[in-house]
Amino acid sequence: MSPEVSIVSPAAGVRSKEKSGILLTVWRRLSQVAFLGILGQWSFYGIFRCPFIVPYVSCENCPVITCHGRILSMFWGFWLLLPLSVVLFGRAFCGWACPGGLVNQLLGKIAPLKLRVRHLFTRVASWGKYPVLALAIYVWLLAGQPRSDVPIRVGEFFPSVGLTFEHAGLFWLVRTGIVLGFLVLGLIAANAWCRFACPTGGVLELLKPLSFFKIYKNERCNGCDQCLQVCEMGTRPAEANCTNCGDCLNVCPTDAIQIGRKK
Of 1, 132, 194, 199, which is the most buried if we count CB atoms within 10 A? Predict the structure, then answer.
C-alpha cells in the first residue's frame, strides 16, 4: 500500500499565515495596553508635569509626589531593565511596551503620509534622534538638569496642568512644545516622533546590534519591500528603526523573514 500524502493548498497556507499574523498583532497590542497601565501615568507626567528639562531621569529629586516615578522609584527599575531588554530583543521596547509608541502608532493609523519608502529624506531624518539624544545628555549631565518649571498642584489634574504651563519657564515650554508638536505631526506623518526624534529610541537604536534575538532577512530576500508596506515604522527587518514588532513576519512571499538568532 502506498503511504498517504497530505497536500496543503496554497490558499490554505496563505490563510494560515494571515491568521498567525493577526494573532501576533493581538498579542502585541495586549502587551502595549498592559505596559500602558504600568508606565502610562509616568509617561504622561513626564510630558505635562515633570519640572525638569529631561524627564524620567531625576525622579528622586522631583517635587511631584503623586507621580509613579516618584512614589515607586519606578525609574530605577526602568533604566536598569531597559538595557537588558535591548541585549535580549533589540528595540522591541518601542514596538511592544512604550506607551508613547502606542499613542504614536494609533495616531499613525489615520496619518495620510505613511512614509513607507526608502529615499534620502527618510534615511537622513532617521538620524534626527541622535542630536536630540546628545542634547538630552548634555542638559542632564553637563548642564545640571535645571528645573525650569514649578509643578503647581491645585484641585483636579488638568487644571493643575494648566497652571503648570502658566508658570513654567521658557526652556520647559520649548521642550514641551517640541514634544507636542511632534505628536501633532504624527497625525500627518506616521510615527514622526518615534522614527525621527525620540532620544530613548536613539539609545536603543545604537545598542540593538548587540541583541541576541531579532527579526531579520535571510538570503531569500528579493527586495520586494512588502515588509516595508506593512511596517508602522516604515522600515525593513533589522534595519534602522526596526522595533521587532513582528508585523512583517507573515507577509513575505519568499519566506525570507525570520525571528531568532541570526547566524
Answer: 194
